[in-house]
Amino acid sequence: MKRAIKYIGAIMAMLFATTSCDDFLDVNTDPNNPINAPVELLFPAAVISTAGTVGGQYAILGGLWSQYYTQNNASNQYKDIDSYNIISTNTTFAGRYTELYSGALNDYQVIRDRSRTAGQWDAYLMATVMQSYTYQVLTDLYGDISIDEALQGNQGNVNPVFRPGPEVYDTLIARINFALAQEIPEGSASSGLSENDVVFGGDMEQWVRFANTLKLKIFIRQSEARPDVAQAGIEEMYAAGAEFLDTSANVDIFEDVTSRRNPLYEMDQSTALNTNQNLKASLTLFEFLEENTDPRLQALYREATSGGYKGQQQGTFNATTAQLDPLSVSRALIEPDAPVYFISEAESYFLQAEAVLRGWGTGDAAALYNAGVDASFAQLGVDRGGRYPFPGGGFEEQLKAIITQKWVALAGTYQGLEAYFEQLRTGYPDFFDYPVEGVTGGVFAKRLPLPNIVSQRNPNAPQTPVPITTPIWWDIK
Predict the structure, then answer these.
(1) Of residues 93 and 7, which shows the higher confidence score?
(2) Which domains can be identified in the chain, with CATH numbers?
(3) How many CA atoms lie within 13 A of 395 on its CB side?
(4) What is residue 215's three-state secondary structure?
């Protein structure tokens, strides 16, 4: 284990070394050159690449777009994100996009290819699940992406075609199903993998549960656009006795040491930056918690410099300091040693609750909802105290309760991106505040534009930028 910790520390130091926000984690691997590291050492590097990207820059995007945070009116780091003023030439998200393809996704593919040839099915499942999770984030952000022809480099097609979102989803389900159908070891993975598994420490039961929960999420995401596909897939899972996560799938190796901190903290709160005052408490979530006397408020936001707790209206970053004293507003409470979550325990329970509510799964929707709320409060170390009982009304009222509480729970795990996807899919919460300084004419952002560096280099990529207000295919509600 000491070898693994030392090696992982070296990975984190390499990935988190930064001279500017745009350079953070911009350590792309050349997909045209072979990767010679053994599978058990390549795997944590890939996972940290996913965690650093999804849990860093994308977490800032998600935190602002899910209205957990808004840009401080006395600084300007995230004005473009908060106002939806993101174009295809934006280098920040172009760097994150290319990092995932040339870093994490490429490494997972090497592991999948090698382990399939060797019949090392524990490594194959782990890499397939993490690669599928990473692809899911990308297709939910960008829509069409390259997948089946991707990652071939000079060994294959260097100009992969882009597949529509539904085809990407179907491919991910097929890949996970194939991995689950193999002879997965019971108990622990092989010793080398177990020592270097920064998610579950080699616990293969949890990897199977992670695979099932990711499948459940992919099916649930299609609830409005392809309900027949979603229903059939979920019913098949329950009929086969699938078990889902009862703990979080996360990377929990961060510590309050330079280059080893949580990537969101490292990017926004680190003392190495010019300011840690950019992310302020959005009034959207703040007022919801305040109105419900929810003690999670103090676990999500810091007390204002001038004392007390106060939220700021979304997108009011152009307010003068005379109009809004920035010292009077709470800022985001982000811990340097917090995990990066892929699927949290609370999220798993809320997914199951929705599956049961829709009649596609078996169990007690109310009990699963309560398990999700309890998990959120427990994760933040505060007492629920009987708050938020499961409503006794009809489907929409109960779905609203499930998704609204998922939204709050995901704030505690810095999973704002996932919360935003769910708001687009369901319309809940139904009290989002359009940013005052938004540039899209009163329309919420629906996606990220494909970086123009991709379309310039690949003639098979979409050549016409898709407007940021164009919904992703599953966003029809």
Answers:
(1) 93
(2) 2-212+442-457 (1.25.40.390)
(3) 7
(4) helix
